[in-house]
Amino acid sequence: MTTPVKVAVTGAAGQIGYSLLFRIASGALLGPDTPVQLRLLEITPALKALEGVVMELDDCAFTTLDSVEIGDDATHIFDGANLALLVGARPRTKGMERGDLLEANGAIFTTQGKALNEVAADDVRIGVTGNPANTNALIAMSNAPDIPRERFSALTRLDHNRALSQLAAKTGAKVGDITKMTIWGNHSATQYPDVFHAEIGGRNAAEVVDDQAWIENDFIPTVAKRGAAIIEARGASSAASAASATIDAARDWLQGTPEGDWASMAVASDGSYGIPEGLIYSYPVTTSGGDWEIVQGLEIDDFSRAKMDATAAELVEERDAVKELGLI
Ligand code: NAX
């Protein structure tokens, strides 16, 4: 067994937490030989429910689960964290304006960014799942000046996985045969799932599909609005799939993307592909040794350009709104 890894999870008593914690504890994230120390953050009223979840974690008798600590103080829970998965966020409730939502989440992610800055381990990586994920990551990053910007990312892996699944269903391919899928931009309805650079068994996916109308009118809106479709069907938002994507994203970040493939991750833009620098924008990335690199040199046609710019414009609006609120 190797040195234990401290994994902090916020919103641990929520829906996603209920799936995520068990996957992490079972070794799905770090493998069978790495002990995990879970550090779980919740708001005070949810601590009792979280105690129940911890009882269930105990009852699984996972050999890879070294310890569990729970609490409502970010500075205590994030202490020494090597990986922080920021899942807890304030959902939009009835009558809430967009500005109210950004402000409520701003309060959470400024506090958590500052706490991570103060007490997280030197090698910390921070993945934000809680919505609005890109802008929450921007807020946390801006409030953690001592942590390198490259250590922050927001989750678009669920969108990426949804795109793989839709493309597999359309073409009859297996998801494992599809590589180089890309989600560009915001984890929102403006995201751009791009099949033009994807490959199926090494062949260009758009050519295999050979149906521009399907790509434009079916594939892209289905992937972008899948969250709403799940709510409609299930009466609750995606949870197990979001947890699974959170694991996929963190695992690939820490352990590397497979040779000949890449992943989608929302990371701080360095201006690549003409996206405003500093936005947390989803790009195709390769990872190795815990670091990511944006895939360069992809040819972008007018169709893709317009979609990539539209989702960037939404992120600029969100950034300007949180700037105006003094959150970044
Ligand atoms: P739940 O409402 O079930 O759970 C959220 C939990 O966060 C609650 O237990 C709440 O007490 C806790 N929480 C709130 N403020 C907190 C704080 N300051 N510190 C610690 N914990 C806090 O939501 P769930 O379904 O688990 O979803 C969590 C977040 O993921 C939501 O923001 C949701 O919108 C977002 N999602 C993001 C996805 C993505 O792909 N990026 C997809 C799934 C999901 O919609």
UniProtKB/TrEMBL annotation:
UniProt EC number: 1.1.1.37
Swiss-Prot/TrEMBL keywords: NAD, Oxidoreductase, Tricarboxylic acid cycle
Signal peptide: none
Domain spans labelled Lactate/malate dehydrogenase N-terminal: 5-149
PROSITE patterns per UniProt: MDH
Catalytically driven reaction(s): (S)-malate + NAD(+) = oxaloacetate + NADH + H(+)
Catalytic class of the enzyme: oxidoreductase
Binding site for substrate: R92, R98, N131, R162
InterPro entries attached to this UniProt entry: L-lactate/malate_DH, Lactate/malate_DH_C, Lactate/malate_DH_N, Lactate_DH/Glyco_Ohase_4_C, Malate_DH_AS, Malate_DH_type2, NAD(P)-bd_dom_sf
Sequence positions that bind NAD(+): G11, A12, A13, G14, Q15, I16, G17, N105, Q112, T129, G130, N131
Pfam families: Ldh_1_C, Ldh_1_N
Domain annotation Lactate/malate dehydrogenase C-terminal: ranges: 156-324
Active-site residues per Swiss-Prot or TrEMBL entry: H187
Annotated function: Catalyzes the reversible oxidation of malate to oxaloacetate.
Family statement: Belongs to the LDH/MDH superfamily. MDH type 2 family.
UniProt-recorded name of the protein: Malate dehydrogenase
Species: Aeromicrobium halocynthiae
Phylogenetic placement of the source organism: Bacteria, Bacillati, Actinomycetota, Actinomycetes, Propionibacteriales
The gene coding this protein: mdh
